[in-house]
Amino acid sequence: MSIAKVLLAVVVLAILTPSFSIWGGKAGRFQEPTAPTQYWFNDQLIDHFNPKDTRTFAQRYWVEPQYYNPSKGRVLFYICGENTCAGVKNTSYYMQVAIANQALVVVLEHRYYGLSLPFGNNSLTLDSLTYLTVEQALADCAHFIGWMKGNNSVVNIPLNSKWVVVGGSYAGAMSAWFRLKYPHLVVGSWASSSVINAITDFTDYDYQIFLATNASGPACPKTIQNLTAYVESNLYEYGAAWALQFKSKFGPSAAKLTNEEFLYYFADVFSAAVQYSQRVELCNYLATYTSFDDIVRYFNQSGIDPITYSANFTALTNWDINYSANRLWTYQVCTQFGWFQTAHPNPAYSLRSKFVNITFFENYCKQVFGAPLWPNTDLINNEFGGKYIASSNTLIVNGGEDPWLWASNLNIGATNPLDTSYTANCNNCGHCIDLKQPTVNDPVALTNVRVKILNNITNWFNAPRSSPVMLDI
Questions:
Q1: Is 48 a catalytic residue?
Q2: Closest by alpha carbon to 305, among 269, 356, 353?
Q3: Cα separation of 190 and 360, whole Å?
Q4: Which listed site, 35, 40, 69, 348, has its alpha carbon 20 to 30 Å from 119?
């Protein structure tokens, strides 16, 4: 592939996927959903666990009734995660699953993100963020489902309707956790790229980037390692003035980063390509570039804004629909989940800089919030089971090249036969690949996984409520 074609692919990637920010949070430019119409659940509780607290906020949601058969009473409930919700995605595979089952599609925006603000423009202060927890977000979903069954005027949903919950990435974990915690409300869970295992020092993310790029041949990860070493030398060996000049090549936003923040940004541009199913294009480019200026050009056209890696930027409390997700997601990982992406301890398998270590993230969390916030990941894993989650009718689906699969479970059926895990092992099968619109060029492995998803969900809808159903197909 020519350099021009690869650069075009990178630009397309930037258009199709949200910008990638610290710890995998997403900070894409806001685009108002065009269809269908958005609605508001005005009575969502701010605190579900304090009966004396009756405060509420308006939470945004969407419905797609075009293919819905009310006599069947089937609902596919899509949870939006750590970004402004884009509403119903009519081209996604979950829409095809809904059509096949004549199901209503319902989409709910996550509290604090997008326009679902518990405290309006003051929702980003540290005190206001107290209610930004996964437990509160799961309770939002439960309260919302209860209200949708017979209380809303948008569409007729029978009280005995069957719901299947769907989500991707963090929302994929929410999907699995929701079925675990509220099994009376949903008959099954499709948990795409679900990060069900909270991990503080997430070195395996880096390891997976190595494994994925190595599938293109050992020259690809070696090139990234050499580029990382070259950047390190320019940042640390020739003085602060030289380092500033070097970072400025990547734009004015990059010049504002500390050396460590820049190194995190530098690693994430490569990681994002692998994560979002562009590994082949990335490695083809790295096999043909002729100078470091080509690398700079690649970064500048990636659509990833370096400023989102700045602790000073994330510390801002002024609400902005385009950038607030950076602070919100940073709060969630600094208080509950971790997933701090550090270099693998074996340099042979590491593509990230050794300077971006766990101490860097400890300081980052403290600097952003002005307080020593740090997650106790054992609490989350004890609450929900981590990778040993024991629920029923739960599909854990992963792309074989996705660096987040190490926070999931690739063999869950061995520990709990009522749940199962499917992995699409194929080129460019990255994060949430199963949720994307199918094409005639999809790998056979991905197509087969999608067939299994459809068959399982169809059987959940068809089965009596009294018994879990899981197909090992």
A1: no
A2: 269
A3: 35
A4: 35
> Which whole-number Å values give the CA distances from 157 to 74, 187, 200, in the listed order?
8, 15, 41
Query: Does 402 participate in catalysis according to the annotation?
Result: yes
Distance CA 448, CA 471 (A): 14
CA dist., res. 59 & res. 56, Å (int): 9
Helix/strand/coil for 331: helix
The first and second tokens of residue 347, run together, are: 């340099």
Spatial neighbors of 147 by CB under 8 A, at least 6 apart, are 41, 43
Token pair recorded at residue 159:
């009280």
Which SS3 state, helix, strand or coil, does residue 334 take? helix
Pairing of strands 394-399, 188-192: parallel
Instruction: Find the catalytic residue in 48, 110, 344, 431.
Output: 431
Backbone angles phi, psi at 179, to 5 degrees: -60, -35
Q: What is the pTM of this model?
A: 0.91
Mean pLDDT over each residue of the chain, to the nearest integer: 90
% of the chain surpassing 90 pLDDT: 84
SS3 per residue for 165-189: EEEECHHHHHHHHHHHHCCCCCCEE
Tokens at 269, concatenated: 């541009």
